[in-house]
Amino acid sequence: MASLVGVFATSHGPLIARDWQTMPAHRREHFVSRFREMGRRFEACRPDVLIEIAPDHWTNFFLNNLPSVCIGVGEAHDPPAEPFLRDFPHKNLVGHPGLAMHILETALKEDFEPSLSHRLRLDHGFCIPLWRMELPRLPAIIPFIVNDLEPPMPSIRRCLAWGRLIARAVAAYPEPLRVAILATGGLSHSIGEPTMGAIDEAFDHEFLRLLERGTDEQLTDYLEDILPRIGNGAHEVRNWVVAHGAAGSRGFDLIDYEPVPEVYVGCGYAAWNVEGRKAAA
Ligand SMILES: [Fe+2]
What we know:
Blueprint: E1 3-10, H1 15-18, H2 25-44, E2 49-54, E3 69-72, E4 76-77, E5 93-94, H3 97-109, E6 115-117, H4 124-132, E7 140-146, H5 156-172, E8 178-184, H6 201-213, H7 216-226, H8 237-246, E9 252-260, E10 265-272
Parallel strand pairs: 1-8, 2-7, 2-8, 3-6
Antiparallel strand pairs: 1-10, 3-7, 4-5, 9-10
Helix pairs in contact: 3-5, 5-8, 6-7
The chain binds fe (ii) ion (FE2).
Fe (ii) ion binds near residues 12, 55, 57, 185 and 236.
């Protein structure tokens, strides 16, 4: 049977790539050390497959066709189109149709109704963390896109339920695959609105505290109340909530948090303890 060997989450602000050469050296060093630690823990899990949970930044979808959740079931994915990702080192992005279809079918059997795509382009939300984690080779990737950009969005309760469903589906898959989850996005940021560039550190700290010590109900109540009132980029923490659900809402291990004004994002790095042990900490 397949097993969940690691659950991770991190930020993916596009300026982490676009402004890489021009940001202050101490910021670049911050990103190198934190993402390298993420990569070290990820590699230690030796995953065969990565379920990567990220938004779609108007790359595959737009207002004329905007799924709440889309699972990438293709044999392969297209590389990022953003010019600042032209040096992204992984040119062949392989999928895992078997496990992806299994997750999709499990979801439908349990009355979830995701969209699916046989060919997705992976944008900076998927690729910046993979790049900065300095992974020598990528496992097969199952893209799991959540609409974090345009209201109405999936509820926080539903995001937790999605995480649990993914974990159940992985555990029931008959091949002996090692499966990791990586959620990307958030924490607080504000894009294209009057508060552009603002980082809400109070929100970031409370969100991280609830992942570490809160109940599902506390986490849900807090996010449903506050997300509509703060910077629009914070909606991406839905992806972290999916990962939290997959990890059974326990074992959250914060690697680091730092607000980074140069990239407009409160940057978080986390791993959950899976099956009662630290994720190669
Ligand atoms: Fe984003």
